[in-house]
Amino acid sequence: MQKNFRPHPNSFKNTFCVFYEVLPDALKGLRIQFESKAGSSYK
What we know:
little secondary structure
């Protein structure tokens, strides 16, 4: 069972992200676990 990602509102303050390019097929079936007020979403 996959745990839901529920970060604290300030958890991304002063951080950076590393992004990996994947094919769209790799994202099929994943549901959004968190969506920020700014519109970012995490699967």
